[in-house]
Amino acid sequence: MYKYGPQPSGRPPQKKQIAYLLDQFSSADIKQWKSIKDLLLKYHWDFYSSLAFQRSKIADEINKSLLEASHKSFVFTRWQRVVRFKHSVEPLSLAGSLTDPGGRFNIGEINLSQFPPFPALYIASDKETALQEALCQKIDPKNLNNALNFALANPTSITNVSVSGRLDTIIDLNQPNKLQPFVDLIKNFTFPEHIKQIAKTLKFKETPEVIKTVPKLIDALLAPNWREWPMQYDVPVASQIFGQLVMNAGIEGILYNSKFSNKNCLEDLRKPTPVRL
């Protein structure tokens, strides 16, 4: 969309200005959102709590299934990590992963009293993927400057570091069939009737359902809009819960494909440091 203004005589013509429409809503939309806000938050909290209780009853079995699905001794050489220049003296710092809402597979400071955060180190198999993950957008190499501008990042403020190492155990989402025993444990979970009723009241297109197949699990773990639940409803999303389960099982990382480049990314999970009072 272009805007043209009147040109004062004797002055050079102004450059065309491009306006981007970021969002659009009406006063009626605001009233509707306010009327359902509490019910919407209750739905997501009850959804999370119901499944969390059922997972807690079979925690040992879940740990065993994930350990049996893990791969031993994963070595990575010259993988890449992108950080802002101000963090370049500590490129392996985990502090950024704890800010709200956290990362795809780790819980940030969503709600400290309800969900203890735990950090993670994210790296990618190549520089392009690492940059796209850091800026949270797919980048055309020909339009790199535009991507940096959208991310409010100066091209000189990006630092790229090479990382090599080894993890004793990982979950490889590129080999999902090993997660079938885990899915077999959770596929029979159920929802209380009142959660289904709230979903009807809110006119959701789909009724709440549990994950029953490995493909559905992978879809949930790699969902593009994973930030919606922790940012809008203050509860962890499925991939963050899965990361927590993996960490609790003593597994050190999760290997998965980037949603931007479809190349490998690795999340190095770290247990939170106990706080001494």
**What amount of the residues lies in strands?**
15-25%
In total, how many domains does the architecture comprise?
1
Which term fits the overall shape? Answer: globular
Question: Oligomer, anyone?
Answer: single chain
Enumerate the spans where pLDDT stays under 50 for 5 or more consecutive residues: 1-5
**Could you tell me how far the N terminus lies from the C terminus, measured between alpha carbons in angstroms?**
58 Å
Which class best fits the helix and strand makeup? alpha+beta
Number of helical regions: 9
Largest sheet: 5 strands, mixed
SSE arrangement, N to C: EEHHEEEEHHEHHHHHEE
Beta-strand segment tally: 9
Helix percent band: 25-40%
Spatial ordering of strands, largest sheet: 3-7-8-9-6
Mean pLDDT: 86
What is the radius of gyration?
Answer: 22 Å
Question: How would you sum up this structure in a few lines?
Answer:
By secondary structure, the protein is α+β, with helices and mostly antiparallel strands. It has nine helices and nine strands. The chain has helices spanning 27-57, 59-69, 127-135, 144-150, 180-186, 193-201, 214-221, 228-233, 238-248; strands at 2-3, 17-18, 71-84, 102-103, 106-107, 120-124, 158-172, 253-257, 264-269.
How would you characterize the overall build of this protein?
By secondary structure, the protein is of the alpha+beta class. It has one domain. The chain is 36% helix and 19% strand. The protein contains nine helices and nine strands. Strands 3-7-8-9-6 form a five-stranded mixed sheet. Strands 1-2 form a two-stranded antiparallel sheet. Strands 4-5 form a two-stranded antiparallel ribbon. The protein starts with a strand and ends in an 8-residue tail after the last strand. The N terminus is likely disordered.
